[in-house]
Amino acid sequence: MNVAAAAATTLGWSASAAPLLLRATRGAVRTAPARALPKSARAEAKLIDGKAIAADVREEVRVGVADMKEKVGKVPGT
User: Fold this and answer.
1) Is the pTM for the entire model greater than 0.85?
2) Which of 5, 20, 56, 70 qualifies as a FRET site for 78, CA 20 to 30 Å off?
3) CA nearest 33: which of 11, 75, 41?
4) How many angstroms separate the CA atoms of 57 and 53, rounded?
């Protein structure tokens, strides 16, 4: 009996359901990979533009530092 089947039996699941519910890897038990899930349960991947996000963050920080310099007279890191 493999680890997944043993875990299924311990948890009261049927041994035939074990391969779909659990997967044994290097002695550890983890959930089944996404390909075993129905398509309706999978999340869709979304591509992001890291350079654009980084530019937005830098702009927000630049504006925040300028506001702090105006109000307090100091900037972070000095």
Assistant:
1) no
2) 56
3) 41
4) 6
How many other C-beta atoms are found inside a 10 Å radius of the C-beta of residue 15? 13
Distance CA 49, CA 55 (A): 10
Q: Considering all CA atoms of the chain, what is the largest pairwise distance in Å, rounded to the nearest integer?
A: 70
**Cβ-contact 24, 42 below 8 angstroms:** no
The per-residue pLDDT for 45 is 82
Distant-in-sequence, close-in-space partners of 20: CB < 8 Å, separation ≥ 6: 32, 36
**Across the 78 residues of the chain, what is the mean pLDDT of every consecutive 10-residue run?**
60 55 53 62 83 97 95 89
Cα distance between the two ends of the chain: 64
